[in-house]
Amino acid sequence: MSRLAAAALAAALCGLAAPAGAVAKPPAKPAAPAVQKPVVEAYTPLAKTDAAARAGDANAQTHLGDDYLLGQEGAAKDVVQARHWYELAAAQGQPDAAFVLGEIYWNGDGTAKDNAAAQRWWKVAYEHGRQDAAKLLGDEAFARAKGEGETWSLPALQEALDWYQKDAAIAGPAVQEKAVARVKQVQDLIDYARRQGG
Fold first, then answer.
1. Number of domains in the chain
2. Could you give the CA distance from residue 67 to residue 69 in angstroms, rounded to a whole number?
3. Among 103, 125, 106, 122, which Cα is nearest to 114's?
4. CATH code of the domain covering residue 107
5. Domain-embedded: residue 52
């Protein structure tokens, strides 16, 4: 028996031989060890804004309020959370936060409707540079001016007129006509209320 035949016989007896017609495969390489990814806190714009907001940054608080109000930057839409962050920022005089906070209270979004709170926050917004709050303050005063039937509150009408005049003074060309018309309407109502003894 030749050496080659003896080797084949020995392999067959040990169970190492491949079945007839099979092609021998090279031994498999050992699996590579699993790569461990480093544990790193995820960076997101929301996480960065949240950290700055918690540190007291009024602009970050406003941005975080926007994120929660609109459900953006990975934040779930949550008007209550938005109001919380806007209140913190508005208390520091952040005009955009105060403006939106006024709208939240005016509309009763995530809270009870509160026109007095809306007025208070719109005044903060106006005093800190949001002159467009003048129109909303006029709207709020005008809403208070309407009494029962055909009665009007002269002081509230006068307040509405004052705010509408401020709004008309800064109104851009696209809204100038409407702003002037509001002023005229309230002036006419003041004249009417005076004639009625209001």
1. 2
2. 6
3. 106
4. 1.25.40.10
5. yes
Residue 140 lies in a domain: yes
Same domain, 51 and 126: yes
Q: What is the pLDDT of residue 190?
A: 92
Q: Which own/partner contact pairs does 176-180 have at CB distance under 8 Å and 24+ positions apart?
A: 179/135
What is the C-alpha separation between 136 and 113, in angstroms, rounded? Answer: 15
Helices and strands of the chain, counted as H and E runs: 9, 0
Distance (Å, rounded) from C-alpha 191 to C-alpha 184?
Answer: 11
Residue 66 has pLDDT above 50, yes or no: yes
SS3 assignment for 38-74:
CCCCCCCHHHHHHHHHHCCCHHHHHHHHHHHHHCCCC
First-to-final CA distance of the chain: 130
Which of 130, 152, 186 is at the close of a domain?
A: 130
* Claim to verify: residue 123 and residue 154 sit in the same structural domain: no
Residues near 161 by beta carbon (within 8 Å), at least 6 away in sequence: 138, 183, 186, 187, 190
Q: For residue 143, what pLDDT is reported?
A: 92
Token couple for 145: 């001016």
Q: Per residue in 11-49, pLDDT tens?
A: 444 444 444 554 555 545 555 444 444 333 445 677 888
